[in-house]
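Exercise: predict the fold of this chain.
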Amino acid sequence: MAINAFHRRFRYIYLRLIRLRGHPNELALGMAFGIFMGMMPIIPFQTALALALAIAFKASKITAALGTWITNPVTIYIIYKYCYQIGSFILGYDHNTKILAPVVKAIHNGEVLNSIIKILSAEGIIIAAFIMGGILLGVIFAVPSYFIFFYFFKTFISWRKSRKLTRA
């Protein structure tokens, strides 16, 4: 029973992706915006800000929302850790990860909102380190992802068109 429900859900997602419309540039740009915002340590606002960027630059809103899932329960600790370390290095701040202990504990307990509160209640330099590291990681991951997803969506749309022609 559960396998059937999983199969139906997977099939639904597959069909939604197959029917995804837009120019490869729009789709890839949306994904890049989502990945950029996904690297920012602002979990409750990542999707909203990615959608705002997608609307402002006429990119795909669906792929922008999907891209923010680069930050997920498996990757959040790694992303936050490196956001802090890279940002504190850039700012010349001691990037001792002991400061991250309450944040890590909140993440491990599944208290994502509490982890955001812990970050925001920290000193200003710590918040600046998180944001600076998030911006740098966002650029590092978003720029190549644009080109990768542009090629992927271009190939995907071409495949979908050829599949349509062979069926007709």
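Check your answer against the key: The CA atoms of residues 41 and 134 lie 6 Å apart.
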